[in-house]
């Protein structure tokens, strides 16, 4: 029998692979006295996907360190977050989450008897909790509540009051679950600091906060339930897993925003303490890595090929998914899955649609705008005013894009240039060549007409997300439906500021490195 780990060993297990810890001294002080009590919460909204293995593997670390772990199924939060889970589906989705999360934990060998499972509505509707929520609402400002939820609560143009309550509930959960620490993604940081500010005002202790990094999805952006190609569903068939991994962004030698490498680092290595790259003998045969850093180094130096890496992840991932698929292959759970996540159906003549009849929010986060690098530029064979470009947007293959820039931008100025590309327009043929995106450009207001492609900040990588300030947390539509005219409605408020910065309603277009701009067309439009 192995000896129980000491406080320092427990600290290392608890904090490995985390991006940030708030309250390190308090964490160590608790570990010197007793076991840590910690909780992880998940709002029961969209279907959990393979990125959920990241917190699951950390929960395994917490248990190895002797922690008392509570898992919260935050059903009330799911409803408050812009009604991501409609009230009539809340119970069904919470049951689905309970079954799927437990199946995930079992698939990685976590003993369920060591965990405590709680639903938010088990205690959040009590008299005491409600009174504390009223007390908290009399202290917290609208500004602080909105800021706290900015990266977690869905951002819309006309936000509901419920979204402002969300951070307060999450802060109170720490007290009512009687824990020392809360664990979550780094996107929760503003809610964590909100809790640290306001809980002492109610006479409650400040807690420790542990934060995982955000794992890139298969497209290189955040893995999301609402972005189909960015994630692998836990119940996806093996052929779907293969298809999605084949399309995943995994550029040779590029270790930045690489969702395949990140999954190995944050899930497969912590679970097995090794990773085997499978390859044919003529390419050197299988190679076992016992340290992630060695694998990353070999990938960066192109010793490991993306195709071999993807194939190896596919095999390892299917081993994790097989027991989950098997568990959900029974009639009872199949029925629960379809009831909790019904397929929207079109209404028959004379019937009301089952879809929400409320008008859709037309917000910038619905646009999939990315940094692109122009790989090649050629004149369109059948149109003198059009270029046909190959543009790298961080996917397996560059996109073909047709642009009407011949009379405005010389070919040599486009070659190897970073541009801003709208990626979720419906592909359409332009004089016989299918265009898979739109290069966004600044245009002068008067005559003669001038056009300049928008410039991302220096240092950006192909595939990086471009977003509008204040709408960082939203997820884009998979494809913009032409009849809905979402882009056209938003474009009406696009403009270039007096500082040559691209804006929507006076909010800047941004990447993580800064503002998107143009060279000289102050006060221009964007098209």
Summarize this structure as a short list of keywords or feature phrases.
OB fold (Dihydrolipoamide Acetyltransferase, E2P), tyrosine-tRNA ligase activity, ten-stranded antiparallel β-sheet, Rossmann fold, 527 residues, 23 strands, Tyrosine-tRNA_ligase_regulator, 3 domains, Tyrosyl-Transfer RNA Synthetase, ligase, six-stranded mixed β-sheet
Give the gist of this structure:
The chain has helices at 7-15, 24-33, 53-64, 75-80, 87-107, 127-137, 142-148, 162-176, 189-198, 238-247, 259-272, 292-300, 306-327, 331-340, 411-414, 486-491, and strands at 20-22, 37-43, 68-74, 115-119, 181-185, 208-212, 275-277, 287-289, 369-379, 387-392, 399-403, 418-422, 428-430, 433-435, 438-439, 441-443, 451-453, 465-468, 494-496, 502-504, 507-511, 514-515, 525-526. It starts with 6 loop residues before the first helix and ends with a strand. The chain is an alpha+beta fold.
Write the SSE topology.
Layout: H1 7-15, E1 20-22, H2 24-33, E2 37-43, H3 53-64, E3 68-74, H4 75-80, H5 87-107, E4 115-119, H6 127-137, H7 142-148, H8 162-176, E5 181-185, H9 189-198, E6 208-212, H10 238-247, H11 259-272, E7 275-277, E8 287-289, H12 292-300, H13 306-327, H14 331-340, E9 369-379, E10 387-392, E11 399-403, H15 411-414, E12 418-422, E13 428-430, E14 433-435, E15 438-439, E16 441-443, E17 451-453, E18 465-468, H16 486-491, E19 494-496, E20 502-504, E21 507-511, E22 514-515, E23 525-526
Parallel strand pairs: 2-3, 2-5, 3-4, 5-6
Antiparallel strand pairs: 1-6, 7-8, 9-10, 9-12, 9-18, 10-11, 12-15, 13-14, 16-17, 16-23, 18-21, 19-20, 20-21, 21-22
Protein name: Tyrosine--tRNA ligase
Subcellular location: Cytoplasm; Nucleus
Family: Belongs to the class-I aminoacyl-tRNA synthetase family.
